Amino acid sequence: MRMRKKKNLDTRCERCSENLLVLRSPELNSDIACESPEYFDYTELFGNDNPVELEIGCGKGQFICELAKRHPNINYIAVEQCRNVIVAAAEKAQNEGLSNIKFFSVPAEYLPRYLHPHSIGRIYLNFSCPFPKSRFKNRRLTHQRFLNKYKLLMADGAEIHQKTDNMQLFEFSIESFSNNGFALKNISLDLHNSGFEGNIVTEYENKFASKGFPIYRLEAFLPNKSDT
């Protein structure tokens, strides 16, 4: 079911235009669209040459804003397809004076059209929609079709950090990463009782953990050829 457009949404997006860009998806298959790139100039976007990291599915911005505060010398691109949601994240960053985050409203499969190849140092996938029905598994953000696009974006040594409360999605992700050339590390089946330090709690994470649900986490990376 589609979320109803919020009142004054266009006005709110315009007020955040310095850090929120709504990208209209081309009327093309994403694979075809990405063959005609329109790369963003990171130096122009951020005003510096700092490393760039990416969150796909930023929600209302609790995670990415805290991450940007802790690491002011890293630039962050936060993506959320729904404007109703991402505008709240952009407003939060603007109100907190965070200049090292830019928000893009665009479907994740189109990202290689806009982001430079091998330019992203880390990708965060926090509480992505699990799409539990098997016929929709190709919409999961750890499905092969998305992993192939992430590979185009990832710099040498880059990692993907995933958190979810959904065991089925987590199991699917482990299999998908493993079958598509990724190695895994720091796998946790109960993050909040694991002793892991430095965790930034997202909106969904706080909700699920407060109900006693375990939080699953992993880090995926592409091994160097010399390591294989």
Furnish the topology, listing elements before pairings.
Blueprint: H1 9-15, E1 20-22, H2 30-33, H3 42-46, E2 52-56, H4 62-70, E3 75-79, H5 83-95, E4 101-105, H6 111-114, E5 120-126, H7 144-153, E6 154-164, H8 167-179, E7 183-188, H9 203-210, E8 216-221
Helix pairs in contact: 1-5
Write up what this structure looks like.
There is one protein chain. This protein is an alpha/beta fold. It has a single domain, classed as Vaccinia Virus protein VP39 (Rossmann fold, 3-Layer(aba) Sandwich). The chain is 32% helix and 21% strand. It contains 9 helices and 8 strands. The chain has helices at 9-15, 30-33, 42-46, 62-70, 83-95, 111-114, 144-153, 167-179, 203-210, and strands spanning 20-22, 52-56, 75-79, 101-105, 120-126, 154-164, 183-188, 216-221. An 8-stranded mixed beta sheet has the order 1-4-3-2-5-6-8-7, sandwiched between helices. Strand 3, helix 5 (83-95) and strand 4 form a beta-alpha-beta unit. Helix 1 (9-15) packs parallel to helix 5 (83-95). The chain is globular. The termini are far apart.
Pick out its properties.
single chain; 228 residues; alpha/beta; 8-stranded mixed sheet; 8 strands; 32% helix
Oligomer: single chain
CATH class: Alpha Beta
Low-confidence stretches: none
Order of helices and strands: HEHHEHEHEHEHEHEHE
Quickly count the domains. 1
Average pLDDT metric: 92
- CATH-defined architecture: 3-Layer(aba) Sandwich
Instruction: Fill in the CATH topology.
Output: Rossmann fold
